[in-house]
Specification:
The complex is a heterodimer of chains A (493) and B (290).
Chain A lengths: L1 H19 L9 H32 L1 H16 L2 H16 L11 H35 L3 H5 L5 H34 L5 H8 L5 E3 L2 E2 L5 E4 L3 E5 L5 E5 L12 E10 L7 E9 L6 E9 L3 E8 L10 E7 L5 E12 L5 H27 L4 H16 L1 H20 L1 H4 L4 H20 L9 H5 L6 H27 L5
Antiparallel strand pairs in A: 1-11, 2-5, 3-4, 4-11, 5-10, 6-9, 6-11, 7-8, 7-10
Helix pairs in contact in A: 1-13, 3-7, 4-5, 4-7, 5-7, 5-9, 5-10, 7-9, 7-15, 9-10, 9-15, 11-13
Chain B lengths: L4 E13 L5 E9 L2 E3 L3 E5 L6 H8 L7 E6 L13 E4 L11 H11 L4 H14 L15 H13 L5 E5 L7 H16 L3 E6 L2 H7 L2 E6 L2 E7 H5 L14 H13 L14 H9 L4 H6 L1
Parallel strand pairs in B: 4-8, 4-9, 6-7, 7-8
Antiparallel strand pairs in B: 1-2, 1-3, 1-5, 9-10
Helix pairs in contact in B: 2-3, 3-4
Classes of the chains: A alpha+beta (493), B alpha/beta (290).
Chain lengths: 493, 290
């Protein structure tokens, strides 16, 4: 649930930043503006829900028609040469992955293959999605084939819904074909690995075991959203695991993952060190490591430890604290998990493909939205822009943070303040606001990245899929509404 | 709106603007016309006169700048009314990767026709437009005339009450043009309403009941074709096997009645008639080859 809250808060903060930039909004009238914005926001959501219901009614009434358009779009897409060429390229990359040289541990080659296959599948699926989705409708309009559709008893919303569904069907086939071929090659290449290594570590999907108790030691402060903050040097976030059965951990090492956030007053720092200890509460035997976390970002650290640290009674303690006294660590009550009981790699890969599908589905919705009013090439560029920004959200946040840091530094030297031109200051404020808005409002496509799960052999949780689906759905519905409004008002000459 | 009025426009105006919303061209200026049930209505005019713009406004593809329009009693963007309209655009803008069967099946689905009904109508129409042999070939391999025929088939797929034909005879050979004209008359016989847009005046003359002539977006005239073409101060007598003496007597009677003989001539057939006669199966060409 906190994930939903986090996403919602991010959007809401972006709206607040935009409101603060409006002329006439001052500190004294901000509470009134905020209250008004909340009321307007609620009314907007109600109106949007009513709009979706009305569209759904039309969709039900015209279901045969939008299925006809979906089938037609699918048929049109699979006959495009660009699709065949790109999928072929993707399959060549996947097929040549066993030939890549890998050094080090025996499983390194399979890990490399997994990485290459995942990247190739997502890259070529996104390329196909963008090219086919962004050029379909503009081609229909420029070749005037759209005349023969729009003069039939078909509403324009049905045309968009049908087109999007047809593209999703095409995408599902591409992702499944590329994923299936990837699985085949990975399985064939992993035949030479020892069975315990293959089934226990490489081709598995370890399911998380949550901590039974969260007990911060020392002074702590819990903020809305369920984050408990402890200060370096005086506080430690502690999780206790009980009822663990060593037999459920057949591998030589067990992995513990801790999701956290770390903060420091020194905002210019990119990474902050944190101490992670895994200890046997009975014998006191422990493993202490220092890990790095990204400043002011949600971050998950993984530590591998031997099963001997689990006490005979099945207990284990995990402690996390900031390495430096000036820093804080924010921890979640259920933020620590052991990755243990092996699951099926194939099922996990299928879940990974579903995540990739969600990512491409979102990009397709953006491309279709753009193509309702822009030409094919411009729509392709816009969809690429959204895709790239979706993977550079962190970078944009970093730039905005660094700009804010530089700004603060300038104020400390008041004698230099006069030299800062008004134009430069306004430009800085504008860019800072723009970057923050983009980072907050554009979809964060890293949420759909299955890489860390597959490469760490961690089972993709069902709630993660659900969250990703919901996140995608919100953007797809928003894109659809915009596409509908734009296409409805478009004249076909 | 009256029950037998299929199309009604009141002060229909369309002004195209550029990106900066500056006025570029006034394509249709205050057009007010009515098309009645069961008539073949010709919309005539030179290129750029506003015919296609008017048709696109009737179909909801373009939005009027001002004025009002009703088609089958509904605004043009009403989805339900479109199930009673058939439209053949100026060029047959169809999906080139589909074949004739797939094309008609796709449009049949858009009309929400059941599978068996789609199949039956497709077979009938493909037979009717003479594409039985080419029904499995993709449309990109079709000649212009064949594309017109499949375009016509899709326009009639829903057995429409109101058919809009934009330059229906363009790209057709004389035989195809005659068949198209026969088809329009057949539609009229079945009580359908036809709007025919064309600048090929002989075609319009052969089939239309009423015509409207547009020029530079302005309606110049809108009247029944008979009224428009009739010369009320002249009389034509068409006689068969009249001997020379008989002709002299007729001339004398006209003279006695204070009339004036303007011309005495043998009527000619049309080039179209000659062409069709020569190229018809079993016609003179075939006899000569045999």
């Amino acid at each position: 649930m906190e994930q939903f809250t986090e996403i919602f808060m991010k959007w809401w903060q972006a709206i607040e930043v935009a409101l603060q930039a409006l002329p006439g909004v001052r500190e004294d009238n901000w509470p009134a503006v905020q209250a008004t914005a909340r009321v307007v926001g609620v009314l907007f959501l109600i109106a949007f829900a009513a709009y979706l219901v009305s569209v759904a009614r039309v969709a039900v009434r015209e279901r045969h028609r939008f299925l006809a358009i979906a089938l037609h779009t699918f048929r049109e897409a699979v006959r495009k040469k660009v699709l065949l060429v790109l999928v072929l390229f993707g399959l060549i990359v996947i097929g040549s992955s066993p030939l890549l040289p890998a050094l080090g541990e025996p499983e390194a080659k399979i890990r490399l293959m997994q990485a290459v296959c995942l990247r190739a599948t997502i890259l070529f699926s996104v390329l196909v999605a963008i090219f086919v989705a962004a050029t379909g409708l503009p081609a229909d309009i420029s070749e005037k084939t759209v005349y023969s559709v729009l003069t039939k008893p078909v509403s324009r919303s049905t045309v968009i819904v049908g087109r999007i569904l047809g593209l999703y069907a095409m995408l599902a086939v591409i992702v499944l074909v590329m994923g299936g071929i990837s699985l085949l090659f990975i399985r064939l290449s992993a035949r030479d690995l020892p069975e315990d290594l293959r089934e226990g570590k490489v081709l598995t999907a370890r399911r998380p075991v949550k901590a039974t108790k969260f007990a911060p030691v020392g002074p702590s402060r819990t903020t809305p959203g369920g984050i408990t903050w402890v200060k370096g040097g005086v506080g430690v976030a502690t999780w206790e695991f009980t009822g663990l059965d060593r037999r459920r951990f057949p591998t030589e090492t067990i992995t513990v993952g801790v999701k956290m956030q770390s903060n420091t007053p020194e905002r210019h720092l990119d990474y902050l060190p944190v101490n992670v200890s895994v200890l046997n509460p009975k014998t006191g035997e422990s493993l202490d490591v220092q890990k790095e976390t990204k400043n002011s970002q949600f971050w998950t650290v993984f530590v591998e430890f031997p099963p001997t640290l689990i006490s005979d009674a099945g207990k284990l303690t995990v402690e996390v604290s900031a390495s430096r006294d000036t820093d804080h660590v924010g921890a979640y009550e259920d933020g620590s998990s052991l990755f243990a009981a092996p699951g099926f790699f194939s099922v996990n890969l299928l879940k990974a493909l579903v995540l990739m599908f969600f990512q491409c589905a979102l990009v397709i919705a953006v491309a279709v939205m753009a193509s309702t009013t822009l030409s094919g090439p411009v729509s392709v560029l816009l969809a690429f822009f959204v895709y790239l920004c979706g993977h550079l959200v962190e970078f944009m946040s970093d730039v905005a943070r660094l700009m804010a840091t530089t700004h603060g530094h300038g104020h400390r030297h008041e004698e230099d303040a006069d030299e800062v031109s008004i134009f430069a200051e306004q430009l800085r404020v504008f860019l800072d606001s723009l970057l923050k808005q983009l980072a907050a409002m554009l979809p964060d496509l890293r949420r759909f990245d299955p890489g860390p799960f597959i490469l760490e052999s961690i089972d993709i949780p069902a709630w993660g899929l659900g969250l990703s689906f919901t996140y995608m759905l919100v953007y797809v519905l928003a894109c659809f509404a915009m596409a509908h409004a734009l296409f409805q008002g478009r004249e076909i000459q | 709106m009256e029950a037998d009025c299929i199309v009604k426009t009141e002060g229909l105006t369309k002004t195209f603007t550029d990106f900066w919303t500056r006025r570029r061209v006034e394509a249709v200026k205050s057009l007010s016309i009515e098309i009645h049930r069961g008539e073949v209505f010709g919309l005539l005019g030179p290129n750029g006169s506003g015919k296609s713009t008017t048709v696109k406004m009737l179909l909801g593809l373009l939005f009027p700048t001002s004025g009002r329009v009703w088609v089958l009693g509904q605004p043009p963007r009403d989805v339900a009314a479109k199930s009673r309209i058939g439209f053949l655009p100026e060029e047959s803008y169809l999906y080139r990767f589909l074949n004739a069967d797939e094309t008609l099946d796709f449009y049949g689905r858009l009309f929400d026709l059941p599978r068996a009904e789609r199949r039956r109508r497709s077979d009938d129409l493909i037979q009717q437009v003479g594409l039985k042999e080419a029904r499995r070939r993709p449309l990109k391999e079709y000649s212009k005339g064949m594309a017109r025929r499949i375009g016509l088939a899709q326009a009639l797929l829903n057995d429409p009450d109101f058919v809009i034909l934009d330059e229906p005879t363009s790209g057709l050979d004389p035989k195809g043009r005659r068949e198209m004209k026969d088809l329009i008359l057949e539609l009229k016989r079945r009580g359908k309403t036809v709007l025919l847009c064309s600048h090929l005046l002989p075609d319009v003359e052969d089939v239309c009941d009423r015509v409207a002539i547009l020029n530079k977006g302005v309606l110049l005239i809108c009247r029944p074709l008979k009224d428009l073409l009739a010369r009320m101060d002249q009389v034509q007598i068409l006689a068969k096997n009249l001997p020379a003496e008989g002709l002299e007597k007729v001339k004398a009677v006209i003279g006695e009645s204070q009339g004036q003989v303007v011309a005495v001539d043998h009527p000619t057939t049309t080039l179209e008639e000659v062409f069709l006669k020569l190229t018809a199966p079993g016609g003179e060409t075939d006899s000569r080859v045999a």
